[in-house]
Amino acid sequence: MRTRTASTVITLFGGVTNTILTIQVLAAWRSIKWEPESEWELSGDKWQVTGVKIIWALLSLYFASAAAVCFIGLHGVLKHKPSLVRFYRDYSIADFSFSAFFTALATYGAFLGPARVGICEELSRHPDLMRNLTEIGLNLENCELWLSRAVFVGLAVMFFIMVIRLHFLLAVSTYYSHLARHYPHHHQRSPSCTSSCIPSSSSSSSLPTHSLKDSNTSSTNSLPMQRILVLPKPAPGMASVGFNANPDLEPGVNVEMVYAPVPKHTLPKELQEQATEAWIPSSSSSSAMMGASMSMSMMPSASRTYHHRRHHHHRSSHSYSHTHAHAHTHAHAHTHRHRSSSREATGRIKLDIAPGEGLLAFRDDVKEL
């Protein structure tokens, strides 16, 4: 929390400071006399004036861009956006390196005698600027001495500023590391659905079917999809095609529903009209998760439960085993045993009869009439 507060203050202070400096540089632009007074000055100072204009324009652009980047960083800090904070941090690193190099280069040049003489001559050509600099003790007589002393003062000030900027940079880097740990997938959904993105059993009864489909859209939009048809509930006519509708099932009983693959042409016309179109991913790993959500969304509201354990994923994949030709052999064996038990329980009667034994037992004490 402290690093966030420090980063907020740093970016706000940088934005405001660079904005003020930009305004001051642009205001000083108007006070400088750019036009020469005679043709002689024009012939000798043309390139110098052009160079000063370029440097002044670059200086204005530098402060303006620094202000814009600081406000971008402030927005990233306030909105917890790691990408914007990282952009501000990278810009600060580059700016810090450039400032350190420029400070060293300017200090070396200021100690040279010809450089101080050239600066004083350039200032003498701008009386308006010299009139403003007179307030701080600079005139044509003490220009070189004043510049030599100003170099040491400027070096000390720049060293102090660089130390402060280094601490600011470390604070912003620390806050960015905090954001990268706690917001690794900002504005992105996790590729694998965990228990946090699966509705709980208490709240799933009030969710419509389309909301359950939307929760898995982002994780399945990159997988090939396959079209299936799902019936909303078992019907009495489904017993002939492998379903066993239990009319004695109470509404409050919590029971798992299984959706077995059935060819569409084997269903009666009225059941085909009731079928609902759905799309599932054809990948075995993703369709197991989608199958669980889809099968639970078609169940009665009182019996909707969401299980994200490993064996429940296997049960869901068994329900849609017709879409996975490459599924595990254990899934096929389990589905085959389940279907066999269903057929034996719904269509056959077994009697323990010995070979050659009749249907009715023969009794010796019964006499013929």
From TrEMBL:
Basic and acidic residues: compositionally biased ranges: 341-350
Keywords: Membrane, Transmembrane, Transmembrane helix
Skewed-composition ranges (Polar residues): 214-224
Disordered as annotated region, ranges: 202-224, 307-350
Transmembrane spans: 12-32, 54-78, 90-111, 150-172
Residue ranges with Basic residues bias: 307-340
Protein name, per record: Uncharacterized protein
Source species: Gymnopilus dilepis
